[in-house]
Write a structure and sequence with these properties.
The protein has helices at about 10-20, 40-50, 55, 60-65, 75-85, 105-110, 115-125, 135-144, and strands at about 1-5, 25-30, 95, 100-105. By secondary structure, the protein is α+β, with helices and mostly antiparallel strands.
């Protein structure tokens, strides 16, 4: 299942949620300000990011500018603790699945999440699990 890490005031976050809802792709939503990311989640995000901190940290954020942080000099543990203490430095939204992440809203790139999500939907779509089984578009796709 997809996880999206968001902030409520972020317009790109709202766009991602709307797009996923329109595509009928289920996701878990996490507000990075009301529910802190844990060490495992942050390590997973860093591991999946192609360019490390460049992909996920906004160096233009107020905290980064004020503290003049050099993320390349930090250990992973220091970086994780800094992010946990300052979630506003994260770019948003961050979309994560079991193999990759996407940062920000880009309608073309977000489409890469469809095949996996649809496959999972097809597997889980059965008369026992789905109250709308008889009219479910996933069932129709899986029967073709």
């Amino acid at each position: 299942m997809l996880k999206i890490f968001i902030s409520p005031s972020c317009s790109s976050c709202r766009k991602v949620k709307q797009w996923l809802d329109e595509q009928k792709i289920s996701y878990q939503e996490r507000n990075i300000f009301s529910s802190a990311l844990n060490e495992k989640e942050l390590k997973d995000i860093l591991y999946k990011s192609e360019n490390g901190t460049e992909d996920i940290i906004s160096t233009r954020s107020k905290v980064c500018r004020e503290k003049n942080i050099d993320f390349d000099e930090m250990t992973i543990s220091e970086l994780i603790e800094f992010i946990k203490s300052n979630p506003s430095i994260l770019k948003r939204p961050i979309i994560v699945d079991d193999r990759r992440i996407q940062v920000g809203y880009d309608e073309e790139e977000i489409r890469s999440f469809i095949p996996e999500a649809r496959r999972i939907a097809k597997i889980n779509c059965s008369r026992e699990n789905c109250p709308t089984y008889d009219v479910c578009e996933h069932r129709k796709i899986s029967e073709e």
